[in-house]
Amino acid sequence: MRVVETSAGNRLMQDVIGLEERYGAHNYAPLPVVLTHGRGACLFDEEGRRYIDMMSAYSAASFGHLHPRLVAALKRQLDRVDLVSRAFHTDGLGPFCEDLAGLTGLDACLPMNTGAEAVETAIKAARRYGYDRLSIPHDKAEIIVAAGNFHGRTTTIIGFSSDAATRRGFGPFAPGFVMVPFGDTGALEAAVGPCTAAVLIEPIQGEAGIVLPPPGYLSAVRRLCDRHGILLILDEIQSGFGRTGRTFAFEHEDAKPDGIILGKALGGGLLPVSAFVARRALMDVFDPGSHGSTFGGNPLAMAVAREAMRVLREEKLPERSARLGTILLDALRAIDHPAIRAVRGKGLWAGVDLDPALINAKDVCMKMLEGGVLTKETHATTIRFAPPLVIAEDDLLAAVRVFREALDDCSLSSPSSSVARLSYAK
Ligand SMILES: *Cc1c(COP(=O)(O)O)cnc(C)c1O
Domain span at residue 20? Predict the structure, then answer.
């Protein structure tokens, strides 16, 4: 198999993978490919082999790799100033906040760096709002979250995860979170109590396997929050910036949140840029000294993020995602294969559930890698398709063809499947 051939290039690949093994933490299980270049929807390995990117770094690379306008914006800013601190004003922050408030339809922005930090910001805002505005007793505020959620990796956030691998051995966890099934309005209503400050959900659960709630769920949750006078906070770190065929997933339903959490694509694939964006009354729980981040809102980040928002609009990426998303879903649904249990998606964001009795999703990803398509299974049984929104239609359809072939090659009844499993173990 390709990865164990002994050409010079492949030896390089084995070497750098070996260094990771030896000196790195083993908190990921990457596929055996070393990517050294990227452009648009494609990545290249050290031998120059081309791969179609169906991961987009979990939407962080939604604009494609090294988008020329984003690279240019970063380079322009590098000729001016790098980062100072929030102790002083810089000329990028105000315009960034104006642009992002305009894009979301909300009032005020608080930039951070990683997604998890923006989620933490939202949690702090919701709790303080609960005490200051909803008269919840001191230290009793509750936030309702959904089973199957993924909001990041800090100790507070994993404390309200329902995934055992995410939590094991990392407790004790912070109290103040109540979990309900995703997509179940009745359960949510029943969970609201006198100490509830907010509901915090993803509009579509990405890491759970691109799980869509039933139609009408988001608008029902919006009305429920209004009725109880509590906050609706949406984590659109992965679903935002065109991924679902609208700028934000909440736009598919009448479900404008009180606060929205953004990240990933906001940094244009170049830098970690995240933000909590909220109604003014919610954002105003923060006063000087109550929250901050050394790198949050730095000039380089602001320059790239502002250009990312312009690219989103001028290249009409949400519309493109909607159009190509229909093509993607149609192509996936047209595959007639016994191992496929379900095909879900919205925009350029699809998940295909495979029957583990008939096929091993890891094998399928390995076969797709050999066929020049990069993706990774989630929850052992779901293959995800989340290409950069700039992907060409031909590449999109080519990726589906490679997937189709991988299904045949990997079916557990076929003779090639044992080969695929063996090579993965190496
Ligand atoms: C990736 C992700 C996060 C965490 O973002 P990081 O930048 O990895 O901290 C939070 N919420 C959702 C929905 C995500 O997809």
Answer: 8-60+317-412
Residue range 135-177, pLDDT digits in tens: 999 999 999 999 999 999 999 999 999 999 999 999 999 999 9
pTM: 0.95
B/e letters for 413-426, b = 16+ CB within 10 Å, e = fewer, are eeeebeebeebbee
| 293 lies in the same domain as 326 | no
* Mutate-to-test residue for ligand 1 from 234, 238, 274, highest number of ligand atoms within 8 A of CB: 238
Residue of 361, 362, 367 whose CA lies nearest to 339: 361
Is pLDDT above 50 for 250?
Answer: yes
- Of 293, 314, 335, the position where a domain reaches its end is 314
pLDDT at 361 over 60: yes
Catalytic residues: 150, 235, 264
**Contacts of 398 by beta carbon, 8 Å cutoff, 6+ apart:** 52, 373
Query: Which residues have CB under 6 Å of ligand 1?
Result: 58, 114-116, 119, 150-152, 202, 206-207, 235, 237-238, 263
pLDDT value at 102 more than 90: yes
Tell me, what CATH number does 273's domain have?
3.40.640.10
For ligand 1, atom 10, name the residue with the nearest CA: 151
